[in-house]
Amino acid sequence: MNDLYRAIADPTRRVILDELVERDGQSLFELCGRLAMKHGIGSSRQAISQHLEVLESAGLVIVRREGRYKFHWFNGEPLRAIAERWPTKDPGETSR
Amino acid sequence: MRINICSVPVDDQAKALRFYTETLGFQKKHDIPLGEHRWLTVVSPEDPSGTELVLEPDEHPAVKPFKSALVEDGIPFTSFAVQDVGAEHERLDALGVRFTQRPTDLGAVITAVFDDTCGNLIQIAQEIHES
Questions:
Q1: B5-127 classified as CATH 3.10.180.10
Q2: Which fold has domain A2-86?
Q3: CA separation for the pair B70, A10 (Å, rounded)
Q4: Which residue, among B75, B103, B63, has the nearest Cα to A68 in the 3D structure?
Q5: Which residue in chain A is spatially nearest to B122 when comparing CA positions?
Q6: How far is A79 from chain B (nearest CA, A)?
Q7: Is some CB atom of chain A closer than 8 A to the CB atom of B107?
Q8: Who contacts A55 (Cβ-Cβ below 8 Å, separation ≥6)?
Q9: Closest Cα partner for B79 from B24, B19, B122?
Q10: Gap between the Cα atoms of A27 and B70, Å rounded
Q11: 3-state class of B121 per DSSP?
């Protein structure tokens, strides 16, 4: 659980997740291009790779090899634990 | 000084010549026997006297691990300019070319990345000029 909070505490890692939600199954090269060109995040490829490892260990990113290529996929499943721990009411069922 | 050639390291020159001419649409410029290989170059039909691309044998033992590492991370070996990335993607996809990155709008440029079947990824890029 701590891995999850640590993973989403970093703004660059949140942008990585945003970009994977926009298009799932990206190479490291594509992700770095999007971060640099769309968000002005000039981190090195090595740094982005390390961010991806943190996201992967939290279960938020899944890495799949297809032949000689490696792609990164978003997995929102671990986030469910947050909503279950602090449930939010629907707008219609406010307690006042 | 000017840049007249650049090269891509290919695992098979005959296969590379087929892909770079028949699939991509470049034209053969030089094909000169050179020991067990050939000095083999192609040019763009849009610029036949322009920069030549050498289809160079990737024999050196350091080249293959280098190429594999680039391919794993999706990094293209080189990049070609196109008028319309979307149209090229559609054309090449119909010919069975494998894309590791579909057309992606990065603001100043639209890019896509495909596999050249000879051990490299290649980027195509379309510059966006604001009107």
A1: yes
A2: Arc Repressor Mutant, subunit A (1.10.10)
A3: 27
A4: B75
A5: A29
A6: 27
A7: yes
A8: A7, A13, A16, A17, A61
A9: B122
A10: 11
A11: strand
Angle of CA points B75, B55, A33, to nearest 5°:
15
C-alpha span between A86 and B11 (Å, rounded): 56
pLDDT digits (tens, 9 = 90+) for B13-58: 999 999 999 999 999 999 999 999 999 999 999 999 999 999 999 9
ipTM greater than 0.95, yes or no?
no
Round to the nearest angstrom and report the end-to-end CA distance of chain B: 34
- Asked if B98 and B110 count as a contact pair (C-beta separation under 8 A), the reply is no
Task: Tell whether A26 is within 8 A of chain B (Cβ).
Answer: yes
Q: Judge: A29–B101 Cβ closer than 8 Å, yes or no.
A: yes
Cβ B72–A69 below 8 Å, yes or no? Answer: yes
Q: Where are the domains of chain A?
A: 2-86
B60-100 pLDDT per residue, tens: 999 999 999 999 999 999 999 999 999 999 999 999 999 99
Tell me whether residues B106 and A28 touch, CB distance under 8 A: no
C-alpha B2/C-alpha B30 separation (Å) is 19
* Eight-state DSSP code of residue A9: T
What is the CA B122 to chain-centroid distance, rounded?
5
Query: What tokens appear for A79 in the block?
Result: 């986030």
> Cβ contact (<8 Å) for B109 and A37?
yes
